[in-house]
Amino acid sequence: MNAIEIHNLNKTYTTGTKALDDMTFTVNAGDFFGLLGANGAGKTTLIGILTGLVRTTSGTASIFDHDIITDPVHAKMSIGVVPQEFNFNIFEKVIDVLVTQAGYFGVPRKKALAKAERLLRDLDIWEKHNVPSRTLSGGMKRRLMIARALMHEPALLILDEPTAGVDIEMRRSMWKYLRELNNTGTTILLTTHNLEEAEQLCKNLAIIKQGRIIQQGSVSSLLSALEKRVYIISTAKGDEEITISKGGDLYALLQTYHARNIVVSDIRPKENRLEQLYMSLQ
Amino acid sequence: MKLPHYLISLQSIVRTEIIRFTRIWSQTLLPPVITQSLYFIIFGGFIGSQISDIKGVSYMAFLVPGLIMMGVINGAFQNVVSSVFGAKFMHSIEELLVSPTPNWVILFGYTLGGVLRGLLVGIIIFGVSAVFVHPQINHPWIVLLFALLTSTIFALGGFLNGIFAKKFDDVAIFPIFVLTPLTYFGGVFYSIDLLPSFWQTISKLNPILYIVDGFRYGFYSIADVPIFSSVIALLIFIVILSVINLTLLKKGVGMKQ
Lengths: 282, 257
Ligand SMILES: Nc1ncnc2c1ncn2[C@@H]1O[C@H](COP(=O)(O)OP(=O)(O)O)[C@@H](O)[C@H]1O
Ligand SMILES: [Mg+2]
Hints:
Low-confidence stretches of chain A: none
Oligomer: heterodimer
Structural class of chain B: mainly alpha
Shape of chain A: elongated
Number of strands of chain A: 13
Largest interface: A-B, 37 and 31 residues
Radius of gyration of chain A: 23 Å
Strand order of the largest sheet of chain A: 6-7-8-3-9-10
Largest sheet of chain B: none
Radius of gyration of chain B: 19 Å
Strand content of chain B: under 5%
Order of helices and strands of chain B: HHHHHHHHHHH
Number of strands of chain B: 0
Structural class of chain A: alpha/beta
Bound molecules: adenosine-5'-diphosphate, magnesium ion
Shape of chain B: elongated
Helix content of chain B: over 70%
Mean pLDDT of chain A: 88
Distance between the termini of chain A: 34 Å
Strand content of chain A: 25-35%
Mean pLDDT of chain B: 90
Number of helices of chain B: 11
């Protein structure tokens, strides 16, 4: 079963901005899927649509086979979302933020209190459970939102740039936590514009630019493609494309032409689409 | 989600609302006590002593139901409009919108929050009034019915205002320019019998007149207009406001992009 299935999804805001442009992709159950893209690429819009905060212009999306428009209750039950911006009530106590959110998902109060304690302890902010949420540090607020997303034990966790503005140590511990969560069966969709994060965490990736998926595949295949260089070599017989993996020896290659008495008149790197992408993401 | 889930969700919304308005009691519960006490002292005490009884009731006693209703109306309306706007402003409304909670539960929850604050304010003002005049309630059920219907209407009105509110000013416009004038002209301070017939006719276009009048009937068995038609009118208002709110919620107006 697919955790997420998106077909020809379009979103044009009332301002006229086309944020999603005919997007189609799927995320398998159990995957740790990364959505990589620069600011303004459309990541948050896509998450908004999946979670019911943004209306679609056209196209369909489903979560574990539940269409988000025709069966929103089941679709929403399966999702826990950690948004990009803080969006809890800053006057509420930490514990109330969690228990209230669980209540919205139908989790009884007693059960929610126990679950909240477990999550806050796991995420190392239990000592703050009784303070107003506005008094937490940035990293703690982020962890509060992760805990909140997990209160109803969703099968799919969606995180929108969860480590933006989080210090390195905290980032590593969050990565560890997410990896363990994924290992125990939770499907994860994570957006980031940080390649290291994508490489560290994700199994599969889609690179999104201006609302379109421009590249997708397993992290290893995308990365190996990134590390190859393609050269165009011109000889009397015409142009020839050759690929050299990173660390490969261009000089040794030219020697083989020489040995065959072929005169190389020009050699130039072919522009590497992925590398350009990679660069444009930084 | 099944019905028990919805009830848990409803409970969460209402609980959050109660925690909110009791936490900021100095902004929600204290002001009506102070203003209404001033009305009792100045209008009821200083001025009222110069005014003859209205339909056999002392002016101070005549004021009680109207002043309570003023508090109920404002309390219910303010609670919902500021809570909905606050949730939009902080984006915490998203916690509800990403959840499977259906729109009717959201509307019901916020409305109930407003009703509870309205009733609480009403009870407090009634308590204050007992300092000034011996309490008398001839028809408790009518008093309760009018308090419930009225707070429901204005809680729903507050929700509607909250949906459209984009900035803090938008929260205050309706209460200042519509609610307050209608309340003052709604027979809180006088019986419309005292007005020339032209102004009596104009006054009858004011919905708050029926509310205050019916409520006062519950206290002293005196009324300017028939109770039954007022109740029907209030029920119709509730249905209309609910339908409008639910339609807007379904469209995501003011909430979804
Ligand atoms: N509420 C909105 N109204 C109008 N345009 C928006 C809104 N939200 C986002 N956009 C625009 O849509 C595009 C995609 O934005 P977003 O989904 O936030 O991208 P990302 O999360 O990848 O940075 C951007 O051009 C952004 O300016
Ligand atoms: Mg974003």
